[in-house]
Amino acid sequence: MVTHPFAMAITTGTVADEDMRRYLEQDFQFVDSFTALLGAAVAAADTFEARVPYGTFLGQVATTEEKTYFHRALDELGGRTDAPTEPVTAAFRQLMDDVRASQDYLLIAAVLCVAEWCYLGWASRATEPLPENFVHREWIDLHEGAEFRAWVAFLRGELDRLGAALPAEGGDERRQQVLGVFRRAVELERAFFDMAAGQTR
């Protein structure tokens, strides 16, 4: 996933405008569900210490930086925020909504971890100088850097902590449930980038 050709093309600024427009139009469709999922994480987290990073990220990034970026980038590319939703976008959004509605903190953390870790994975492969076009450069910056790395490290740590706390007896079924959600999220991430590149799977 982190070396997907489309993701690597973002890091070099070589994605065609039409493809980048289609990708960002669809990615914008996640903003509401993703924001709601972060809110669910705040509510479902089992400790105050865990709630704080979710609340911080929700306030500082999901509702300000990313939303501002989307409007500027789509305006630059001639895109729209109300583009028709692609099937893979709808499927991933449904997964987010289902996990949110479950109020199951471990499943919420699993989906968030996949979404954010995958993006850090490809964005961290970008090398200087970054693309001159702000559409590519700022998208990389939003998913790289010390703060985003700390955020992903927190999510990974929560997944590890919660997983380690599962009971030995009866824990295998729960682990398989979480692993199934994790794998489904990875599958959808891959399919989403395939869609952006104009491929079908």
UniProtKB/TrEMBL annotation:
CDD domains: TenA_E_Spr0628-like. GO terms for molecular function: thiaminase activity. The active site is at 189 (proton donor). Its EC number is 3.5.99.2. GO terms for biological process: thiamine biosynthetic process; thiamine diphosphate biosynthetic process. It catalyses: thiamine + H2O = 5-(2-hydroxyethyl)-4-methylthiazole + 4-amino-5-hydroxymethyl-2-methylpyrimidine + H(+); 4-amino-5-aminomethyl-2-methylpyrimidine + H2O = 4-amino-5-hydroxymethyl-2-methylpyrimidine + NH4(+). GO terms for cellular component: cytosol. Pathway: Cofactor biosynthesis; thiamine diphosphate biosynthesis. Keywords: Hydrolase, Thiamine biosynthesis. It comes from the Bacteria. Substrate binds at residues 27, 66, 116. Residues 2-196 form the Thiaminase-2/PQQC domain. InterPro entries: Haem_Oase-like_multi-hlx (IPR016084), TenA_E (IPR026285), Thiaminase-2/PQQC (IPR004305), Thiamine_Salvage_TenA (IPR050967). Catalyzes an amino-pyrimidine hydrolysis reaction at the C5' of the pyrimidine moiety of thiamine compounds, a reaction that is part of a thiamine salvage pathway. Thus, catalyzes the conversion of 4-amino-5-aminomethyl-2-methylpyrimidine to 4-amino-5-hydroxymethyl-2-methylpyrimidine (HMP). Belongs to the TenA family. This is Aminopyrimidine aminohydrolase.
